[in-house]
Design goal:
141 residues, alpha/beta, Rossmann fold, 2 domains, three-stranded parallel β-sheet
């Protein structure tokens, strides 16, 4: 999106995510900013409300973004979007197809194995982002 549309990227996370946030912005370049560990919950809600779109896993910030009306591309692994997905309209949920044994148990999010969610490709997310941007679903400037 940086190259295609001149987007700026904002990385959010807890103080524990500062290193990974820095790694992400180092890989993206000057159009990226890390905000890991810098916002209180009300401040995060305000910041998310100003975003054109949030790409997130199933997390508190995903639900906060949905609550303040920010369009989402929500990435789901073992957690079931029917049980814990974002509320509201205009959100895109990506979840890999089930394997031969079906979907993982909903509680498998507690395990550190990211194999299932890692089946969602960067290309899939990028194509959904382009489709969302081109459909004028964004409700922000």
């Amino acid at each position: 999106m940086v190259e295609e549309r001149g987007a700026s990227i904002h990385v959010f996370g807890s103080p524990a995510d500062e290193d990974i946030g820095q790694n992400l912005i180092d890989g993206i370049g000057a159009q990226a900013t890390s905000h890991c560990g810098r916002y209180s919950l009300p401040e995060l809600g305000s910041a998310l409300q100003q975003m054109d779109v949030l790409i997130s896993n199933d997390s508190g910030p995903m639900h906060l973004a949905a609550a303040v009306g920010t369009p989402l591309i929500a990435l789901f692994g073992p957690t079931d979007p029917a049980q814990t997905g974002p509320w509201g309209e205009g959100h895109t949920v990506l979840r890999p197809e089930p394997g031969p044994k079906g979907f993982p148990d909903h509680r498998d999010y507690k395990h550190l194995d990211n194999e299932f969610i890692s089946r969602i490709t960067v290309e899939e997310v990028f194509m959904k982002l382009l489709a969302k941007k081109d459909s004028d679903e964004f409700n922000h400037g």
